[in-house]
Amino acid sequence: MLILLSPSKTLDYHSSLLTQQYTLPELLQYSTDLIQCCQKLSVDDISQLMKISDNLAEVNYHRFQNWQPDFNLSNARQAILAFKGDVYEGLAVDDFTQLDFDYAQKHLRILSGLYGLLRPLDLIQPYRLEMGIKLKNGTHNNLYQFWDDVITKQLVQQLSQNENLINLASNEYFKVVKTKQLHHKVIEPIFLDESKGDFKVISFYAKKARGLMSRYIIKHQLSNIKDVQSFNLSGYQYNKQLSSENKWIFRRSEEQLQHFKESN
């Protein structure tokens, strides 16, 4: 199976590296095209385009200007170690063994507005370029148009004939994939938490759950898609009655969440 995640806006380039092993992104030629476009933007352009503060825009202006085509461990970091948002808090790579990194490298992919499709150990330089940004580049009006054919072709090449895709990416990022061209089963786990008697998607918890499920698959080195239904971290349980062939529902009651908090 192949797991698909979104990137994170929060980055870490200061903590100690957990591994010296790395690879280079396979779509760097496309990243270079985007960087050349971004390097023409002023701080004000970036602020308006990304809808961020002037201070954040200035940080990203310098990131674009300082971006170099030669990647190494002094100017870049492995993607799985660089991203530090809610999803990656759930993934919790701090205790990953070499076997875990090896499995992740083969079975985990991260969508990216700048790098297209990343393997966990691919080096990335600091950036912020969300997939939903309407960055014009040549004949393309936005990043979806820029990446859709490229990323879809890359996924087709990396999915073997018998593999399934576990989509744990956000809607913003997964929209870039032309699913009809994959010819593979796409499973979308949905995480519901109980709130005031109703079960619904709570963004903060759902993001962490996507990372937790990725961790579960990696740590157990799963090969059978059905085994993903056994996922039970943090109190989530698979609900067969509410699930369909492609949408798998995992629910957690308020009692299960409270029990998890008390036991940690």
Automatic annotation (TrEMBL):
Domain of life the protein comes from: Bacteria
InterPro entries named in the record: YaaA
GO biological process terms, semicolon-separated: response to hydroperoxide
One GO location term (cellular component): cytosol
Family: Belongs to the UPF0246 family.
NCBIfam families to which the protein is assigned, alphabetical: PRK02101.1-1, PRK02101.1-3
Protein name (Swiss-Prot/TrEMBL): UPF0246 protein FPB0191_01702
Species of the source: Frischella perrara
